[in-house]
Amino acid sequence: MPISYSPRQIRCKNHTLVLDHTLIVGILNVTPDSFSDGGQYFESGKAIAHAKQMVADGADIVDIGGESTRPGSERISKEEELRRVLPVLEALLAELSVPISVDTMKWEVAEECLKRGADMINDVTGLRDKKMAEVVAQFNVPVVIMHMAGTPETMQVSPRYENVIQEIKQYLKTQVEFAMRMGIEQVIIDPGIGFGKTLEHNLLIFKRLNEFRELGYPLLIGPSRKSFLQKILGLPAEDRLEGTLAAVTASVLNGGDIIRVHDVRACKRAVLVAEAIRNVKRQGKERKRCFAILVYDR
After folding, report:
1. pLDDT, tens digit, for every residue of 201-260?
2. Are 264 and 54 in contact (CB under 8 A)?
3. Which end of the chain has fewer CB within 10 Å, C or N?
4. For the chain, which domains are there?
5. Which residues pair with 102 in a beta bridge?
6. What gap in Å lies between CA 11 and CA 5, rounded to an integer?
7. Ramachandran area for residue 200 (φ above 0: left; ψ -120 to 50: alpha; else beta)
């Protein structure tokens, strides 16, 4: 199916996000066991207040997750996931002016949330479930297709690749083509930092991020507080802000379109500086060319 939208914009029902700058996705975990903030926003009132603060701090999208996908995490029922997510989703849809994404692996949860008005789906399994693809296509919303080796329970058990960049690219290409055949028009790709990757794998992804842009779709990166930072810094999840900011900066400089983070205000500031550095390089080349022309004319 041909793409009927510009790959440099994301249409989320009543919202259109233009990728003329780096977008910020604010993470809202309504879980008791997420790796970095488990339980902190489990109570609906706290979750709603936190989402509002993230938008005030610069979030372009809020991503609600009701099930932890940290390494070794255990699955919960769809009923429990919906019990956690729906009250927060419904409140935020009534009060926020930005798109609301739902982070889920279950098509039943995606379907119920889209019925209530959710704007997009973030699927860490990358549309492995055909039924999830059918639901996304039915509601005509964008979907994040992420690469993950294995499952959250097993993904960090000795992950191995012959060529990590090429294998992830091929997986994403295959899943995007599947999405298009299923009638999905808008996809966002995510190489899946920390999902079935060693420290070296993750660092290579950051270094060669531009290669994923060759696929032609908006590129999302989720470096926030991830365990690869612990391996470098030796710090717990709640003390990895500086490491996250460094990874966010590298993501912007190397081609990331969308950054998914916990600490929106600090990361927004880092993004603005990284964008200024990235953009001035192009202007500098133009100035050099103009100077050369002036010298020649003289």
Report:
1. 999 999 999 999 999 999 999 999 999 999 999 999 889 999 999 999 999 999 999 999
2. yes
3. C
4. 21-297 (3.20.20.20)
5. 64, 121
6. 8
7. alpha
